[in-house]
Specification:
Alpha-Beta Plaits, four-stranded antiparallel beta sheet, 3 helices, alpha+beta, globular
Amino acid sequence: MSQRHFVQNDQTMLVTTVTLNRAPVFAHAANAREAIDCLYRVQQLHPFFLFGFVIMPDHCHFLLRVPAPGKISTIMSAYKGGLTFDLGIKKLWQLRFHIRLVEDTNAALAYIHANPVRRKLSGTPETYPWSSAAGTWDIVPLDV
């Protein structure tokens, strides 16, 4: 699950990872909750600033910054491997993940939070439980 990226740290990134064949694994509340719990466990092992996230049925978006000497590839490998193990699903993920460097963090966060509304999973970003927009998860303010 390792992947080389030219960007490794000290820049705000929008990271997207997708389930294999877009299987709706996280449509089940227990799996979505575990996806978030795993994210925080990885953050304890490999520190990073988490500004926002959303766990969609078939993919995840994370808005984050990895301080040096950390590497996004290490974080994503730990996340994808850990969640694969935790859920007991042998082939959970597509092999790669996508990174986009973010200049406008507010716009990127709005994009992430609007995902469930666009997919008609929620009427508002705040009512979707598997998103930092819900206000129940621990995230870093954007001004850090």
